[in-house]
Structures are given as structure tokens and as C-alpha cells.
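re: ur question from earlier - yeah i can do the single chain one, its not a big deal. heres the input i used so u can compare w yours
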Amino acid sequence: MNTITLEFKSVKTEIPIENLTLDTLEEAIFDIGQQLGQTAFVNALGQYDAILAKSRLRGELKNIRKKTKYLQTRIGDICYRRTLYREKTSGKLRYLLDEALKIDKNQRLSLKMTEIVAVLACIGPYRAAQEHMLKLMGLSLSHEAIRQNVIREGKRIEEREAQEHRKMKALDYPAPQDTPDVVYNETDTTYIRKQNRNKKKERKQRHLEVKLGVGYTGKEPRYNGGKKKSRKLSRKIVYADIRSDRNEFMDKFSCISEKEFGLSVVKDKYLGSDGDAWIREGAREYFPGSTHLLCPFHLFRNLRRALPGKKRSQQRLKKLFEQNRIDKVLVRLKRMIKMIRSRKPKKNIAGFYAYVRNNRQGIEESMRIRLDKNIQSAGAVEPNIDKLIAHRFKGRGLSWSLEGAQALLKIRQTIANGQWDDWWYDKRGKHIEIKAVFKQPLTAKEMTKHRAIAPFIEMELPCYRGPDQSKPWVGVLHKLTQARQLS
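and the output i got, formated as C-alpha cells:
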């Protein structure tokens, strides 16, 4: 069995004790250790290259010459020489040492260094990551080099994500081992500032829309002991995207939820949102059978914005919302619109009236489950937006290109899902084979039909969306059809 020898030569250095401090002594020992490690690293690579040269198949590879390569590692920059070969039949150039060590063609950082750089870039700005690397490891790497490495790694994650999505659309994935009784999915959007390159077409688009989806099965205690009742989301999954449009985002998020939870056979499933029309419309197409819930946080925030400074009116309407008397809310808002003559307040109340009317079903379901202790209310997506997006992408002076923001977002998504170690030690570099069951990719509804039979048929009465949707008799009819489906 071939082996290589790691040899660390003995070093003796004299350091004057005048003005000697613990910091200077630590710095000197750290520098010496790095130099010894770099020498041992280069010697080990030379030994490995020589072993590969002797064990190669004779007559197939021709030795051309030695070529130099620079690589940044955790112990510093190393420069080593490896042998270049040419295949006699095809003329292809090869480096056996790079192939054995799984080094990419233009790779400049070791994988461990790339992982460290990506984590530091997720914590703070690229220039701060540059300073942290210099202090922690004594390595000098420009902020632009850090940014480029983040973009390359983010693209790798995005490419694999696209392959996994095609595999799910072809129904080539195993069913989840544990199917929960309840699944909550929530979606929301936020905006980050876009870099302005002084182009006429880009001046109109000053922001990038970041779409976020969160799926979970409920809430559980964060700690085993302690007096604080801190809770966290159980089996949480996060999906974030900038590049995809809204329909494509809903399609991908629904597939991820189906793969993780087996959404098509879950008994009770809920889709929470802030009331945007594209989420309500996408719910029927991509989350069939899910009950739409309007997030109470967004509802009451919009209430405060519609009636600024009028705390009594806010409290009265909030109480009516909590009592699930939506008809009474709409009547009072309509009365306010007629009474107020000022243009701006009238416009704000009219906008809130339309918001309540269009999201009536989601509000009623949300208020109903607030009284049920076995069901969680919507609103988990908002703190996840703060953790995943706002804390890193928003701030004074921060602006992003589409490529850079998408790459960093995918890295933060991988870390938030607890898949960071799996990415480096299992998934990265592995090709995905897709054995398509169907020639054409399936939609979310088709996946439900072929994967399992839906527990009920979802239908909606035309009066819910027509001109009569705000009338009292429609509210009575809606309450009569709110009977829970039997298992």
C-alpha cells in the first residue's frame, strides 16, 4: 500500500525579551506554525504526484512537464508543482494529482477555505469578512475574491436545486417516512435595493423582489428545561428565491413541501400569507386543498396604517375582527368612507376595505383557529424574513446585483435548513440522475393526482368573488360551508 510522509522539521528561533508581550509571542509562534505546515503540505503533494506518476498506465499517458499551481488553504498560501499528462489517443491534457485530490480546473481555494469564506460572508459585509479572516487566520483575501467565491458556490447550490426540482416533477423521489397530521406553509415577499449601473432600463427597477416560503408542522419547546416558554418551529424548511417569477416560486416551494411532508396526503394543511392576490391565486394551483390563512400581524398592521391616530376606531375594529364579525367590519368601513371627505384618509380606508373584502375567507379562518389551541396561527414567515434576509441584505449603503444577492441567499437558505454539512460532505459535486416516470413535468395538481387521492374535492362558489361578496347573505352562506372535512 502506497503512503506519503508528513514531515515537520525542527525549528529553533531566538526572540529578544525586550518589549515581549503575550500577543507578540503568540503571533510569532502562529507564523512559524503556518510556515512549517506549508512546507509539509507542499512536500506531501510532491510525494503523492510521484506515486501517481509511477502507478499510471504505461503507453496511455505521456509526461509533458511540471506546472505550478497556487492554492489558498487554512495554513496559508501554498505553491506546488504537479505533472501534466497528455492522452495519446485523444490528446486530452490531464493532471492526475488534481483528479486524485478532486481539485477543479480553476480552483484557487481549498474546500474548507471556501466553506469558511461563505459562512463569514453570511454574517456581515464582504469587507468585514476580509478583516475577520485576517484576524482569525492571518490570511489576506480581498473582499472581491470573497464575493466571487460566494457567487460560484451559490450557483452550485442553485444548479443542484434545479436538478432536484426536475426530479420531483418527474415523481422520481421517495415518499417521506413520517407524514405529519398538520402542515403549515407561509409565503411572503420583501424588497432589497438593487445596484444602479446608470442604464435607462435599470433605473425603473430600483429594487429586487425576494420571495420567501416557510413550511413547518407546528411549534415545539426550544429548550428542554428553563422557565422561559421559548418555542421554535418543528421540521422547518425554508425556500427563498429572487430569480424566479411568482408562479415559478410557488411551483418550486410546493414541490419542496410535497417532498418534505407528503403534502398531498396530509389531513390538515394551511397556507398563510399577507393577503397578496398572487398568493391567493397560486394557492389553488400549487397548494390544492390547503386552507388559506391571513396573517393577523399583517391584518392589524394594515388596520393601523388605514386609521393612523384613531386608536379607538382601531380597537373597535380589532375587537370585531377577533370576534370574527367581518360583516360588521365591512359595514363600518363603508360608513367611514362615506363620512370622510379628505382625499388621503378616504383613500386609505377604501384600500383597507378592499383588502378585507378580498381576503375575507382567510381572515375568517385565521380568527377561527386563534381560539383552537391545537392549531397554530399564521405569522412565522415574518421573523424568518428578518433572520434570513433583512439582517444581511438590508441596511444603509447596501445594494445588490441579481447574481450576487441570489448566490448569497442560496447559501443562507442552505444554512437555515441545517443542510450546510450535508452540502459539503455529501451533495456537492454529485450528479443527479433523473428516471422520469412521465415524459412531461407534472404540475402540483397532477402530482397530487398521481401521488395519492386527495381527501376532498375543493370548490368555490362564484358569489365569493363577485359583486355580491360583501353582502350579509354571502357571509351566512360562507359560514354554512365552513364545516370541517371528516377524516
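The first helix runs from residue 22 to 55. not sure if urs matches, ping me
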